[in-house]
Amino acid sequence: MKKLLLFTLLLAGCQTSYHLTGQQNNRLAVDGSVVADTSTVRWLMPYRQNLDKTMNEPLVTFTERLEKKAPESALDDILADALLVQAGKRYGKAIDVSHLNYGGIRNGLPAGAVTTGNVFEVMPFDNQLVVLTLTGTQLMQFLNHFAANDEALVVGGVRVRMANKTINSATLGNGRAIVPGETYTVAMSDYIANGGSGADFLKTITARDNVNYLIRDALIEYFREQGKAGQPVTPKADGRITIE
């Protein structure tokens, strides 16, 4: 025991202690003056080539550039419709209403070929698809919340008339009225379903299906399907949001 204690003390005494005596810093500009490490560039090249090939894949051709705009735009409508269609396919059941967070739409889409990379610019976040089953009363609360708090209401499958950021009337896309006691399936991002953008009331919804499907992938697959026709597309706002 004494030998072990002596050994421990000797080992501790042999350790070197370091103390900071000064520091300095320099600003390094990341520009053409920085020489790339050639071995690293060669190592990354196959991955970069594969990434470029994926991101540059043309999906569909638009005849004009699309930008988000309040209270409604062609971009808002086609994104919401894309989610409505693709969510129904992945969920395996018809979806009544789709919703996208207006603030989550981060870019427009160009005229000409729309690529996978363009869709990443529009929807850079890895938000997952969630389907909530809401009563008519809850659905109207949902729509009114985003009408009042977002710059624009980005929805598919529903048409609304509103004034002073309050919805006066809403009907489903097929003309059906929203009945308080009936239930409706609503496709949205996990961010919103988890109470994002102030939608805390959604946290209490138990009729929830987490679909293993990125919102971004839904948009990519929708545009790819549209592009198979081989004809340019001219998206238009269809008047689903009416300001009175």
Automatic annotation (TrEMBL):
Q: Which domain of life is it from?
A: Bacteria
Under the heading SUPFAM superfamilies, the entry gives: 5'-nucleotidase (syn. UDP-sugar hydrolase), C-terminal domain (SSF55816)
Outline the extent of the 5'-Nucleotidase C-terminal domain: 62-203
Q: Which Pfam families match?
A: 5_nucleotid_C
> PANTHER family recorded for this chain?
5'-NUCLEOTIDASE (PTHR11575:SF24), 5'-NUCLEOTIDASE-RELATED (PTHR11575)
UniProt protein name: 5'-nucleotidase C-terminal domain-containing protein
